[in-house]
Amino acid sequence: MHTLRPHLHLDRLGSVIAGLIGLALFASPFVTYRANRIVSGEGRMLFDALPPAGAVSTIAVVLGVALCAVLAHRPLVRLAAASLGLCVIFPAVGFSAGFVTPAGNSFARVSPAIGFWLLALDFALLAADALTRLRLGPWGRLVALSIAAGALTLLLLSGAWGDLSLMKEYANRADSFWREARQHLWLAFGSMLAACLVGLPLGLASHRVPALRAALLQGLSIVQTIPSIALFGILIAPLGFLAANVPLAAALGIRGIGAAPAFIALFLYSLLPVVANTMAGLSQVPADVTEAARGMGMSRRQRLVQIELPLALPVILAGIRIVLVQNLGLATIAALIGGGGFGTFVFQGIGQTAIDLVLLGAIPTVALSFAAAIILDAVIDLTRRGAHDRD
C-alpha cells in the first residue's frame, strides 16, 4: 500500500534570491574600510564587520529570510520576512562603521560593500514579489511607499548611519546638497511642466489636424535621437549669442552654459511623450461616446473638456510619467555644463575617485525616480477607474 508523502514546493524566484543571499553572506564583503576617503579599501566580511553577537544574530536573520523566500508562499509572510531583513541589515551596516573604525581615527572611511548592496537588492526583490502577489490597489501602493520612506527617514534621523562615509560626505556638503536638490527638482519638474503647457495643445492640434501629425512626430523623434551631451553642445552657441545681444536674456540668467541649455534640452526631450500620448489618448475615446455627447447638444469645447480629455487622461498621464522619470535621470547630466543638480556630486566624485560622493548624487536621483514612478502609476490607475465610471 502506497502512502502519500508531502512534497515541498520550492519557490523558483525565492530559490534564486536564496542563492544570491548565500553569495552575499559568504563570498562578498559587507563593508569596505579605507584609511582615508580616496585610497583603495579592503573588504570586511559580515562576521568581521560586527561584534560576534551582532554578526551571529544578523546572519541568523538573513538565513531565516532566505528560508522563507524558498519555502513560504503566502505573500504576507514573504513581505514580513523581506521587511525584517531590510530592518536588520540597514542599521547593521551603520553599526559596522563604528565597529571597524579605530577609536579616535577621524580619517578612516567605511562604506557599504557589494555584500550589503546584494542583500538589500535580494530583500527588495522579495518585497516587490510579495507586493505583486498581493495585487495592491493604487492606495495600497502609496501607503507602502509612505511606510518605506518613513522607515528610511527614521534610519537617517536616528544617526545609525552617522559613521558611514556616505553620511560624512553629506555632512561636509549639507548646504550645497539641498541647494543642488532644489536645482535638480526645478530642472526636472519645471521642464516637465513647460512640456505639458506646450505639448498638450500640440497633441490636441495634431489629433484634430492629421496633416500636422506626421511632420510634428517626425521632428520630435529626431530630437529624441540626439544624445544629451550633443544637444547641450548644440544649444551653447545660440544661447550664448542670445545672452550677448539681448540684455533681457542675460538678466534672466540665459547663458551658453548653466541651467538654461539644460532646461531647454530637457524640455525638448519631454515633448514627444507628451504630444504622442495626448494624441493616443484622444484617439482611443470611443466614437459612440462623442456622438452621444454631440446628440445631447454639447459644443465642441464642452465635449473636449467634459468627455474627451477626462477619458484620455490616463494615457496622457502615462506620457507625463515617462517624462518625469526620464527628466529626473537626465537632469544629472546637466552638471557637465554647469546646470547644477545631483550630477554635481556624481561628477565631483568621479574626478576625485570618491565613490561615496558619487553615491551622494546617485542615490537621491534613483530614489526620486522610483518614488515618482510609483506615485504616478497610482494616479494613472485612479484616473483609469474614473474614466471607466464615466463610460
Automatic annotation (TrEMBL):
Coiled coil: none annotated. It is a multi-pass membrane protein. It is found in: Cell membrane. Residues 181-376 form the ABC transmembrane type-1 domain. It comes from the Bacteria. The keyword Transport applies. The chain crosses the membrane at residues 12-33, 53-72, 79-101, 113-131, 143-164, 184-204, 216-242, 248-272, 304-324, 330-350, 357-380. Its main location: membrane. The keyword Ribosomal protein does not apply. Keywords: Membrane, Transmembrane, Transmembrane helix, Transport. Belongs to the binding-protein-dependent transport system permease family. This is ABC transporter permease. It comes from Microvirga arabica.
